Amino acid sequence: MTNVHIRIINPNTTASMTAAIHQSALRQAAASTTITTTQPDAGPVSIESHFDEAISAVGVAEEVLKGEREGGIDAYVVACFGDPGLLAARELTRAPVIGIAEAAFHLATLVSTRFSIVTTLGRTGIIAEHLLEQYGFRHHCRRIRAAEIPVLDLEHHPDAAFTRIVEECCRARNEDGIGAIVLGCGGMANLTADISREVGLPVVEGVSAALKLAESLVSLGLHTSKHGDLDYPRPKSFTGKFAALSDLQLPTSR
């Protein structure tokens, strides 16, 4: 594979989580892949609701626009399990843009016929349900389980959080009739190997899954289609705090 530059976007604004995601991605990246990791300048410190996702989606789009101005980025990864702003991000670039939930669902079905999702808070399970329906994986998923820990507990109370996640993964293994587990939070990226060792099942974590899919798409020369709904947005005026977006210089379809 020729040199590939993948930009990973953490949609929340917690720098320590961005750094942890970056280190996890570095461990999985091919030797020819350059990883850069960013986060929005403004937005929620963690993403745990529909409202958080709506705000963070704007930050994701802004980070893609920054990447396009920089140039030389071959693919983007949106590193939040809600895949916030994914389709909007795809409109802004020809580079592949991969959401970690969609990537994890795809890979889980390649190693098992059924999987369960273990996420952080129960309320975010509804968001995962919506994504399963949207992406066509609902019949592959047996159950969405929650460890009932806030996202930032993964950093602030890592030992207790790890214990709760493993306990819920073990319940999924014993009760759900599954062959694999999908971890439902980008902040779990550095826990995959340890959880898999404890649980004894394939454990799919979205950041790594999205990274490897991005590498594959780039190596195959596949890009985001600009025919149809993922074409570049039509130029128009924006007002108020988004007035600067009126000056976007996006390419025309090609």
Automatic annotation (TrEMBL):
| InterPro entries registered for this protein in UniProt | Asp/Glu/hydantoin_racemase, Hydantoin_racemase-like, Iso_Racemase_Enz_sf
Reactions the enzyme catalyzes? D-5-isobutylhydantoin = L-5-isobutylhydantoin; a D-5-monosubstituted hydantoin = a L-5-monosubstituted hydantoin; D-5-benzylhydantoin = L-5-benzylhydantoin
Q: Which domain of life is it from?
A: Bacteria
GO MF terms on file?
Answer: amino-acid racemase activity; hydantoin racemase activity
User: Which Enzyme Commission numbers does its entry carry?
Assistant: 5.1.99.5
In Pfam terms, one family for this protein is Asp_Glu_race
Which family is annotated?
Answer: Belongs to the HyuE racemase family.
Name listed for the protein in its UniProt record? Hydantoin racemase
Organism encoding this protein: Halomonas qinghailakensis
Lineage of source species? Bacteria, Pseudomonadati, Pseudomonadota, Gammaproteobacteria, Oceanospirillales
